[in-house]
Design brief:
- Helix content is 42%, strand content 11%.
- It is built from 11 helices and 10 strands.
- It has helices spanning 2-19, 22-60, 101-105, 115-118, 161-170, 185-196, 210-213, 217-235, 257-266, 287-298, 315-330; strands at residues 62-63, 69-70, 148-156, 176-180, 200-205, 241-242, 270-271, 276-277, 303-309, 334-335.
- Strands 3, 4, 5, 8, 9 and 10 form a 6-stranded parallel beta sheet that branches. A two-stranded antiparallel ribbon has the order 1-2.
- Strand 6 (241-242), helix 9 and strand 7 (270-271) form a beta-alpha-beta unit.
- The longest helix has 39 residues, at 22-60.
- Bound molecules: zinc ion (ZN).
Length: 353
């Protein structure tokens, strides 16, 4: 015990002498410092590893063509440097949602390129809505010879549709009707008669509610599809032509016109604005003003698409149609109907930039 005590005392004594030695103190301080730094380094490296894991995970989360991400991790671990494309879902695989079958058809096939270049942006959902609403765009005919007038009547059918059809028949003139969603018995009969008597029919709008149909391409398509369907069920015509409610340039579609047009063009439909307006929708219009405006403006074009209306209140228009037809026939104009074979270029408004 004495020895031990002595020994302890000796060790303590030595320790005390060491601790009071300046060099030893510096050495000890350095050692502890080094220990702390290496501990910190180890912790930092673990943390960075975890960060890399997360980064690698998100690198592998790629939008599928349906726009939904699918996280896939390499079996060899997140730090694998293998190309991410090898884990991307292939187009047509079952990884997407069912709603985008057409989008997947157009989806990319993995080719080992960096994923940023390989994957297109997700297609808008409205492109896969109404899959039957597609037509093969017709080859446009050359501009017709001679002086041609296309009479067009919007917003029917109405109580004045049958009387108007009788007038047209009397002169053996055919016109084009851009119709709206009226489903009364008389209206449906009138819609049927438009086609039965050899006139052309096109979609105008089901609701004609411009503050609703131009909210988005999807809203427009919904309205268009409903009207297209009603025409087809009523008349048997799968029409390829339409006229925008308010025309293609209006104050309701400023934000959406480009996208709606692109989508409708993609689906193959042809729209017509006009280059002659009867202005019969204006409150101050009269039979005389309708007649003189139409005749004056038709004289300015070799080919005219004339805008008129066929609602219950457009009696002045109806009363002037015989007068307009008689005058123009005498002047050597002929009347034709619009269809997707007619080049619409001269009769569509230019969108403001
Ligand atoms: Zn209209």
């Amino acid at each position: 015990m004495n020895f031990l005590k002595t020994k302890d005392g000796l060790i303590l004594k030595r320790w005390n002498s060491y601790i009071h030695n300046r060099t030893f103190r510096y050495f000890l301080l350095g050692f502890v410092g080094l220990l702390l730094v290496s501990c910190f380094g180890a912790l930092l490296s673990i943390h960075l590893n975890q960060l890399y894991d997360v980064a690698a995970m998100s690198y592998h989360v790629q939008p599928t063509p349906s726009g939904q991400g699918s996280a896939q991790k390499d079996s060899s671990g997140a730090s694998s440097s293998r190309g991410a494309s090898s884990v991307l879902p292939r187009a047509g695989s079952a990884s997407g949602s069912g709603r985008t079958s057409s989008a997947q058809k157009q989806g990319p096939v993995s080719s080992g390129k960096p994923p940023e270049q390989e994957l297109p942006a997700a297609l808008p959902a409205y492109q896969s809505m109404y899959p039957n609403l597609f037509v093969k765009p017709a080859a446009k005919k050359a501009a017709p010879d001679g002086k041609v007038v296309y009479l067009t009547f919007d917003d029917g059918p109405s109580n004045l549709t049958m009387p108007l059809l009788n007038v047209l028949d009397r002169y053996h003139v055919k016109a084009t009707f851009f119709v709206v969603g009226k489903t009364g018995k008389k209206d449906l009969a009138a819609m049927k008669a438009i086609v039965a008597r050899g006139n052309a029919i096109g979609v105008h709008s089901y609701t004609h509610k411009m503050n609703q149909i131009y909210v988005s391409p999807a809203a427009f398509l919904q309205d268009f599809a409903k009207m297209h369907d009603l025409i087809q069920k009523t008349t048997g015509v799968d029409t390829h032509i339409y006229r925008f409610a308010g025309g293609s340039v209006n104050s309701f579609n400023k934000r959406t016109a480009k996208a709606i047009l692109a989508e409708m063009n993609r689906r193959g439909y042809t729209y017509f604005d006009w280059n002659v307006s009867s202005d019969d929708a204006l409150a101050h219009s009269t039979a005389a003003s309708i007649y003189s405006k139409v005749i004056r403006e038709v004289h300015q074009h070799p080919h005219s698409v004339v805008l008129m209306h066929n609602t219950n209140t457009k009696k002045a228009t109806l009363s002037e149609v015989p007068h307009i037809i008689e005058t123009l026939l005498k002047e050597g104009y002929r009347f034709e109907t619009l269809g997707d074979m007619v080049d619409n270029t001269p009769y569509i408004f230019r969108l403001p930039n």
